[in-house]
Amino acid sequence: MSEDRSTSTDSLLLKPGNLWSRTKEQTEHALQSGALQPIPTRYVFVEQDGVQFFVRISDLARKDEDRKKQDEATARLGKEINPFLPYDEDMFVANISDTHLCLLNKFNVVDYHLLIVTRQFEEQESLLTFKDVEAMWACLDEVDGLVFYNSGEPSGASQRHKHLQLVPFPLAPGISRIP
Questions:
Q1: What digits encode the pLDDT tens for the residues 22-64?
Q2: Continuous H helices in the chain
Q3: pTM of the model
């Protein structure tokens, strides 16, 4: 049985023209409430085979400390803690569709770093679906940026709940779009 691949704009809940302003508003709110905990970074350029790459370097100690607290809570409660179910209201940006919503990335390394999260639990290691791509495109129609998907812990995912990430351009002041 194949998945329905018709364009289902009826299932999109994201109001055109609102995502960027909602992102900026919610970022200010989350910073003031302490829910958003930016991680300072520096960046370098790495060249390989004539291609220049932009690489961010950060100290993830605060994120690791939060992960340790999450693991301790999981052990204490006897069930895994999922920061996306329920999500922190201070991090909520917008409803994207009946299957996805948009949250701020709690430990952002760039300003306005967004997460495109499934409403129901799905493993982060699962393949992307048409609905995932539809939600991604709805966000990219609103925010010019780069979307990526860490499919599991070996590729950098720190949460098991399926989510894509969107970082807006420019990636740093004065940096053009590069690989």
A1: 999 999 999 999 999 998 888 888 999 998 888 888 776 666 6
A2: 19-33, 61-77, 130-140
A3: 0.83
Spatial contact of 54 and 63, defined as CB atoms under 8 Å apart = no
**Which residue among the candidates 100, 113, 161, 163 is catalytic per the annotation?**
163
SS3 call for 88: coil
Alpha carbon separation from 96 to 36, 82, 104, 135 (Å, rounded): 21, 20, 13, 6
Cα atoms in the 13 Å half-sphere on the side-chain side of 24? 7
d(CA 150, CA 163): 8
Give dist(CA 104, CA 89) in Å, integer.
10
Spatial distance between the Cα atoms of 28 and 11, rounded to a whole number of angstroms:
29
Please report, for residues 25, 27, 59, 91, the alpha-carbon distance to residue 32 in angstroms, rounded to integers and kept in the order given.
11, 9, 22, 12
pLDDT digits (tens, 9 = 90+) for 102-154: 999 998 989 999 999 999 999 988 999 999 999 999 999 999 999 999 876 76
Is residue 100 annotated as part of the catalytic site, yes or no? no
Backbone angles phi, psi at 56, to 5 degrees: -90, 140
